[in-house]
Amino acid sequence: MKNILSLVVLSLVFSFSYTPAFAEPGKQEERLALAREMANMTLTMISDPSKKQGDRIDSLKRGFATVVDTQWIAKFVIGAAWRSATEEQRAQYAELYRDFLVQTYVSTYATGDDQKVVDIKVVEVKEQSNDNFLTRTEVKLSNAKKMNVEYLAKPDGDGYKIIDVVIEGVSLL
Fold it and tell me: Which of 23, 95, 102, 136 is buried most, with the most CB atoms less than 10 Å from its CB?
């Protein structure tokens, strides 16, 4: 299950590595189209036989660290201890936590698990508070199993960053 979880998280992360040309609420159709386009791009990337495994791993590591708001997640996970930490401790913890997440998910993907993502169907995109939005997807694996996956994105500059992924009711946070 951990290998599948890791692969799904990576797949969804890369399906959101695009900076949308819109950032105002009420753009439901555009966000839905974006989510579908990015799911298709993710599937293309996963199935690209022309990339060497080492290049794919490096690309996945950079992409994961870029599109997931690991700083926000690290702060959320450590909770109240964040307030009492020094700036140096916060920076060191956030860097180590980012490295942990990247290594965990990317190295698991690189193991070549036979349960690969073969399809990502965008089921729904829902507006949340603060211009965040939730994307609900159905991920089909090569063993024909389907998993319900949701990811929450928040505004970040001109685009969005993922702050949570929920797979079959289990949150990344």
Answer: 102
pTM: 0.71
Q: Is the pLDDT of residue 38 over 60?
A: yes
Tell which residue, 152, 151, 153, 154, has the closest CA to residue 138: 151
Q: What is the maximum span of the chain, computed from C-alpha positions, in angstroms?
A: 49
pLDDT, position 20: 44
Residue whose token pair is 């140096």: 88
Which ranges constitute the DSSP H helices of the chain? 2-14, 28-46, 53-67, 70-78, 81-84, 87-110
Six-digit token string for 98? 């980012």
Asked if residue 142 has pLDDT above 70, the reply is yes
Burial class (CB in 10 A: 0-12, 13-18, 19+), 17: buried
Question: Which residue carries 């791993």 as its tokens?
Answer: 57
